[in-house]
Specification:
Layout lengths: L3 E6 L6 H6 L2 E4 L2 E3 L4 E3 L6 H7 L6 E3 L3 H13 L4 E6 L7 H9 L6 E6 L5 H15 L4 H13 L1 E6 L4 H5 L5 H9 L2 E7 L5 E8 L1 H18 L2 E7 L3 H11 L5 E8 L2 H7 L4 E7 L2
Parallel strand pairs: 1-2, 1-6, 6-7, 11-12
Antiparallel strand pairs: 3-4, 3-5, 8-13, 9-10, 11-13
Helix pairs in contact: 2-11, 3-4, 5-6, 9-10
Length: 281
């Protein structure tokens, strides 16, 4: 009999309650200050990051091999036979490769690792769907066969109040950030086919960028029924405004407003508003 574990990393931006509800195993990214470090999700909240940005902008780092091994030891002791790992885009983080190196050394599990080529709650929504399949009794083979189509049905878009934090983290080129700031252009950011950040549109100013984000959501809803999550980093009021502007669409299934996690907040900074869209599966 198969006993299937789902493992992911903390960039999925799921809550502690969701992690417990779906029996997920999390590899936390590290949030590092000069004199201390924290495990994302478990040891630090987004507000802690935002409130300290004027003193120090932390960095993020991968989960250690020792931590990964401790998670695997726990799963082995609990009798798990199969492991499905679903991780942040390998173009944005070394987490996928770090996990692969450790997990592939373990012969006690039959494992499958999936590079989601996405980040944030879009990743989290893929993880939840896989966990729901486990609860429904689907086999290891059925779940891994379904993952590419779940990913294909899932997308995400973001706009930032400032590009400063992405620039500091090396996630976008300095020139793109400088030009955008000077012209007050706010890019709408997504990921390309390789899972790297790409600008899909630009708007002049904050108000127009939020309108553009809403229009992108409506374009997807015009095509098919979707679940939509509006994401924010200390911008809940604006996130609710975006949700209000699309809430009457007949193809909107479930909708919610969610806060991004601490590690995401390091790179996005305060004021991020985004969306996770998942077509009906």
């Amino acid at each position: 009999m198969q006993k299937i574990a789902i493992i992911t990393d903390s960039s999925c931006d799921l809550t502690i309650d969701e992690i417990k509800e779906y029996n997920l195993n999390i590899l936390p990214l590290k949030i590092i200050y000069k004199d201390r470090e924290y495990n994302d999700i478990f040891d630090i909240k987004p507000i802690d990051v935002y409130e300290n940005l004027h003193n120090e902008v932390p960095t993020t780092s991968l989960c250690s091999p020792d931590y990964i091994n401790s998670v695997l030891d726990k799963l082995e002791a609990e009798g798990y036979t199969h492991l499905i790992g679903i991780f942040i885009s390998s173009s944005l983080s070394g987490t996928f490769n770090a996990a692969r190196l450790v997990i592939e050394e373990r012969s006690s599990f039959k494992s499958y690792l999936f590079d989601s080529k996405i980040i944030g709650y879009p990743l989290g929504s893929i993880v939840i769907k896989a966990a729901e399949f486990v609860k429904e009794g689907k086999s290891f083979e059925e779940i891994i066969e379904a993952l590419p189509s779940i990913r294909e049905a899932t997308t995400g878009f973001y706009t930032l109040n400032t590009l400063e934090y992405l620039r500091r983290g090396g996630r976008i080129g300095k020139v793109a950030g400088t030009v955008g700031d000077l012209l007050h252009l706010k890019p709408i950011i997504s990921v390309d086919e390789h899972g790297a950040y790409t600008t899909i549109a630009k708007a002049r100013g904050r108000k127009q960028s939020l309108k553009k984000l809403a229009s992108i959501i409506l374009e997807h809803l015009d095509e098919c029924k979707c679940n939509v999550a509006i994401l924010n980093g200390m911008a809940e009021e604006e996130a609710n405004q975006v949700l209000d502007s699309i809430s009457s669409h007949p193809n909107l299934l479930k909708s919610q407003v969610r806060a991004i996690g601490a590690a995401m907040g390091v790179h996005a900074g305060p004021g991020m508003v985004g969306v996770s869209i998942q077509k009906e599966i």
